[in-house]
Prior knowledge:
single chain; alpha/beta; ABC transporter transmembrane region fold; Rossmann fold; 2 domains; six-stranded mixed sheet; four-stranded antiparallel sheet; elongated; binds adenosine-5'-triphosphate; ATP-binding
Amino acid sequence: MSLLALLFQKSKLPIILAALLGILTGACSAALVAVMNQALTSRTVADALTLMPAFLGFAVAVLVLRIVSQMQLSSMQQVALLDLRLSLCRRMLEAPLSKLESAGPHKLLAALTEDIAVINSTISVIPGVIICLATLAGCLVYLAWLSGPLLMMILAVIAVVMASVAIPNRYAYSQFYKRRESQDALYSNFRTLIDGAKELQLHHARSEDFFNKELKPTAEEVSRVSLTTNNLFIITGSWGGFMVMAVIAVILFGVPRFQTVEMSTLAAYALVVLYLQQPLDGLMNQWPALSRSHVAMKKLEKLGLSLADPEPPADGAVPTKFERVELVDITHTYYREQDGATFTLGPINTMMRRGELVFLVGGNGSGKTTLAKLLTGLYSPEKGELRVDGVPITAANRRSYRQLFSSVFFDFHLFERMLGLDQPGLEEKAKGFLSRLQLQHKVRVEDGKLSTVSLSQGQRKRLALLTSFLEDRPIYVFDEWAADQDPLFRELFYREMLPALKNQGKLVFVISHDDRYFHLADRLLKLESGQLVSMPDTAPTAVSA
Ligand SMILES: Nc1ncnc2c1ncn2[C@@H]1O[C@H](COP(=O)(O)OP(=O)(O)OP(=O)(O)O)[C@@H](O)[C@H]1O
């Protein structure tokens, strides 16, 4: 869907009002030309002077209407932009995690910055486009009134001009697309620049290689393609201006050969066509912005973040006082585009109960985190089904299902503010947990906010655990939480905290490599190359990871 169509869908009334004002401005501009033409072809100066009030009236009307319509369009622009930006963020919040992961953070960042900036700049040219189109339409109506057959000839010449710029414009569009793809690669390099700062600074040769062989060529490619497209639009814009002169030449020197037309009509035509150069130039100059917005919309669609899609439907309910969660024939496949490699997890069949402590073990890359993402509803299974007390989890109730979980994944994010945790006594509870986690001297909780998150990785993970406890959800998922904790906190985690959660009737699902603690589990699940190798009901036994 084009940006114009989307804007129209989202804010019909303001756009119709703005368009009407634009059309009125264009009509008054055209009327101004008509009065000018009449004055120029008046027989006497006295006749010309009688047209002065009309001329001044239309000139003032154009001035006032231009200001009002621009202001109206500019306020519509801000409303539309805010709406589009918030919609895009909401789409990202709702988008399937697997889709966001396969796009990668660099493409998402490019979408949030580049595409939104392009859409913003396009919205800002829309007022001008509407006024140019309206002026063009008004002038064409006046030309039709002057001479119908002549207008047909002029329209035929304009059609040829349009066709002659269509091919380079299409090429320019493909270059815009290429430029946008290069921008994705550039954002990927920006991420390497930030995330890999340590590794790059510690190895000068690597840093130079990265700069010269990766970052610089990508930045140069963006600049090269931008230059090509800009040059193309300069050429087509100037060509359009030249063709206006060609149209005037056809009027003055071509038309009299084939048709008997009064010289005054020809002069009026030449004047109007000359006047038309301004809106035509305007349209030509705004064409690149419209093309770029089309590319931006296509990129957003490709990421599954189309702004044209309807808002996701309200979520269906899931039993919150459930007894069991079942995974029935669940599968998930990753496909890596770069080398065509695939990894399939499942089919997985297992059942877990409230008050159960389940450990998931297995070697690196066996699929443990993937299974946790499926269990939590972050991934929707390709095949099979999740059930809560027999109620299937589908697209209609997946969001509610996710609210059963509290998790600390291996690559967790720590929120400074305790978002979504507006509950009485929160700070007191938090203080209690902080001292259990031996963080009371490092971190305070004030006004629902952690005083700092600039801590060691192990301490940050303890803070993530604190947030998770405060969430007080029926199911807990921990993905190798203890991996970077010292022995004291491992003991605390496995021997005190997990049993405490279990005793509160929570279902606790723990991904672990700590075979010293496997015997504490009520049930041990083992994954090997994406397959569960332990039977769902096997009694716990120590299994080497
Ligand atoms: N986003 C992804 N795209 C493609 N392949 C992926 C993706 N995430 C994981 N994989 C692949 O899927 C397999 C399982 O990954 P997963 O992270 O579930 O394993 P894991 O058992 O948790 O490993 P570890 O113990 O190292 O954390 C791996 O071979 C991995 O390369």
